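If you are new to this repository, start here. Below is one unmodified record pulled from the training split, so you can see the exact layout before writing a loader.
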Amino acid sequence: ISPRINRNIPTTLLVEEIDSIIKSIDMSKKYALRDKASLILLYASGLRVSELIDLKLKSLLLKEGFIRVFGKSEKERIVPLGNKAVLHIQNYIFNLRPLLAKQGKSGGFVFLNRNGGHLTRMSIWNILHENCIRAGITKKVSPHVFRHSFATHLLEGGADLRAVQEMLGHSNITTTQIYTHIDKTYLKEVHKQYHPLA
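And here is the target side for that same chain:
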């Protein structure tokens, strides 16, 4: 059997970089509440962009702090959100979504475009791209980079690999193990920076 080729280690962002992207959203703009809620949710839950745009209101369990996600091959998983994400989603749902949904085309989707239909992948890319520019982030950032960052930051913080696998909706743990490589790189950097013998 030929040895397994190492997968490329995905690009990730620092917590500060994600923070600056989210903070760069211009809150005076018409769709700012939606844009902020969608980017915070991407990072808070590690969703794939397709899962984000397909998310329906009935899948939000905000009181409990969870969302129900239907991933690849309609596999269901329950993902925790965190208080910050819950607040921003509620803010968007109560204050902006009703204005967008009155066209009657919402289909129960959480994130809507200006015509009341559900957002496309391209819309999310554009929202992200625009705010990366505003934040001065020069790395190539895609919605998937937010997913990678979610997993990496959890593991760096000491989260269990199986728990991260469950949250990402990976059927195979080896898919999740790619993030331990990043974690090792990070540990090596920390060691080099702080150990007297490094």
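Two things worth knowing about this chain: Residues 1-6 have pLDDT under 50 and may be disordered. The longest helix spans residues 173-194.
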